[in-house]
Fold these 2 entries.
Entry 1:
Amino acid sequence: MVFIKQFLCEHCGQETFQQAMVHLTEGTSNQKICRDCFSKIMAKQLGVPFSPIQNNRITLSDFEGKGHTFEIASLLTPNGMALEATEWIDENGEKTVGYKESVLMPVGTAQEIIYEKLMAKLVRVLAEPSLSFNYGLPAFVYPGTVRGRVEYEESPHAEGPKVVIDGRTFTWDEFGKMMSSWEGWKFQLRMIDITEDE
Ligand SMILES: [Zn+2]
């Protein structure tokens, strides 16, 4: 489980999840601020307008008809304008992150165009599972490609990061068990940025 802590934005005081914070370093000062505040600072520096996304919540169905609710956040960076979709899962009162996707386009691109591209990416990702379940145990799909995300492991006793596949979080050990059923096989590993298309 990826446990999410809440922080207050040091600019506007808005409550923000740890994973949605941006670290702003200016000279010797280091502030943790929310995405909206960061984007507004960037907009001033770049001399472009910025308005946070209004329609910021959407539920989409996956390959088996299960609904996934995403919060959409906009982030203006020197490299472009990003829209990020994060699935916050509530498990026994604790927030975890399931699916997470992002699209980055040049500054000045209309928000609707970035939004459409993000929706298309989410629909595609939700339609292509990387795991199948045999008697409740997860296994890699075959034939097919296994896609996942590397996440921070907060437990000091665990070895390796956490891995999120199909919006589910696995420990490095659990991931290893899935790999072990492929002994003798070869694999290809390619790291890609969250904003890239596959
Ligand atoms: Zn803020």
Entry 2:
Amino acid sequence: MSTSPGFAGKAFIVAAIGTLSTAWLMHEAPTQSADVSLHASDDIPAHATRDRASTPPAAQAAQAASAVPPAAPAYRVETAQVTHSFSEAASKLGIDAATAAQLARALAGRIDFRRDLHPGSEVRFVFRNDAQADANAQAGTQGNAQTNAQLNTQTGAATAASTTATADEDLPLAVRISTGKTSHDLFLYRNLDGKAFYYGADGQSNAPSFARYPLDYTRVSSSFSPHRLDPVTHRWAAHDGVDLAAPAGTPVHATARGTVTFAGWETGYGRVIKIKNSGDYSTTFAHLSRFAKSLRAGAQVREGQVIGYVGSTGWATGPHLHYEVHVDHVPKNPLTVALPKRSGMSAEEKEHFAEQVAQFEPLL
Ligand SMILES: [Zn+2]
């Protein structure tokens, strides 16, 4: 936070006054109008970092200082108390269910919406004011036309981006969830196609990646199925996972980061590890010959970490891993279930995004 240009900008206000006129001259026409502040145009998708990069730090501070507060604020901040759930609190502020789910996914792994949110928790959203958005859209069309044309090799791409942005311009620009003990922030970022993403202030997506397979297996020896004849008990029962055959001793890897909730012996499963992953996901690894050293309930694991080794403990006819993926406590087919994805930003996008954070974080 201490590296945020926004805060630095405040500190430089006095020093920057002398260079103010210089900073203005270094910029092009659209910033002349007092009611179209630099702030209001900063979240245009293809905003030029070129300007910032070629501008000395003191002049950057002058830009921040010279952003004359418009007659109508460009942004509004709204707060809602959490009484039942995050999505309910969000809906009070006009956030639709799909957006609430997107925000929840972006926070997966940092906050457990069932455990950490309770009455008294609070959500804050920064929205763009509509009137300002209209003015901003016009200014953006003029002011960023050149930049858009450069970043998108054809003007058609720039048009598509702004159309998409207009269609869902009510998306919150920044979000803070305060649980009383801690708070978590998310910031909207649009890629050049105008597609919306939410990231933490560090620009890292919180949604962890999730590997499809926990080991190098030779074949699927038994597939996921709601009904199958159990080869050991000879009774029809659901097979809640997939059996991946592999030689005894083959390392088994955690498929996503998480917390070990159980590592021990269970009837049928033999030596089994259960891991609570991010969001609603949990994973189970059964019939292991042994556990990795220091693996016990409560341990944190990374994606790819070796947690145990293939065996045939419990009800198993030969060495294989019985692997389960549960989503919201419902077993899903591990080979086909939709897994959380991480989408990274390029270095240039990260630079854009850092400007967004510097702008909106102080409003939260
Ligand atoms: Zn099995």
